[in-house]
Amino acid sequence: MKRARATRAGDSGRRSMFPAAAATHPPLDHVPVLLDAVLAALAPRDGAVYVDGTFGAGGYAAALLAAAHCRVLGIDRDPDAVRRGAALAELHPGRLTLIEGRFGDMERLVGDIAPGPIAGITLDLGLSSMQLDSAERGFSFRLDGPLDMRMSAGVSAAGQNDAGSDARENAADLVARLSEEDLALLIRSLGEERFARRVARRIVAARQQSPIRRTGELAEIVRAAIPTREPGLDPATRTFQALRIAVNDELGEIDRGLAGAERLLEPGGRLAIVAFHSLEDARVKSFLRQRSGTVATSRHAPPAPAAPPPSFRLLGRRAIRPSEEEIARNPRARSARLRAAERIAAAPGFLGSGEPAGPVAPGAAR
Ligand SMILES: C[S@@+](CC[C@H](N)C(=O)[O-])C[C@H]1O[C@@H](n2cnc3c(N)ncnc32)[C@H](O)[C@@H]1O
Asked: Are 145 and 133 in contact (CB under 8 A)?
């Protein structure tokens, strides 16, 4: 993975206060979700270093920078996000470093720049509004565009996909390559789509006529394959979700990111993760339960092998959900769940190699 146009400048020594005033952030195109709860979980303090592994529009990073005189390393695999973040870095000279890369590689990316202790790490999984609302990125079933879905393929100044930034297979190539059986498996496992077989059959029939290269074409094929309608849910939603997760190996990234965060955080350091769908959240929940020694066990189950000592303490037993007021203000927050934990002094656990904790879907790139 290409390392990034890091953006740094000298430190002005200025201190700003939370909530972020207009002067601490350029206008946001993405409304940060569960921002107050993320900030409360991270409890930023002066002089400490924080990692925002999903920088996006910089909403979390800006709030951290405003809340304490800390330093933030902002990672994003999307070159557009890194480019746009330069404006925020200029507002906080010397305190925000932007890194183009994947949070699954955070140990290496961060170690190169800030080898000292890391006081907090946050991940806000999924897509930004800018990615979702750009037809050219190919994530949206509402907007017609190239069937791309690579988070790391930015859009050039001419409005074309900047394919040169990533050799990863895009969604059109994945849809063209997989067998009907593997497509059905992928759509069922990563999209939780109960009509996955029908969808896969239609896709294969359609691609025999001509390659499927546009989001609009695929969305129509999927809609025609699904016999039922759920209020408020486009029938293409689950298939698009499945392809996006596979194209970007999002579940593998979560596993590697969690393992990296566990190794990077200092004792007392905080981890705050916002997930938007059940597959992501289940991954995070399972990791934190195992690493905090809070896995529920049945007295009828065979004795479990000795677990490593806990390396995290959960901050709250349940995930935090957005309030009705936040959802009314920002409907995209609807399905968000925040889980947070504090690193305690024990060696990192069993995910030391960054290996995924569960099955990997067919076609999921590594
Ligand atoms: C929901 S947005 C984050 C929004 C951000 N918290 C804010 O307040 O503006 C998710 C961002 O994470 C990035 N992203 C997703 N997966 C990533 C990964 N594995 N590594 C680095 N960035 C990733 C996406 O490109 C996107 O910009």
From this structure: no
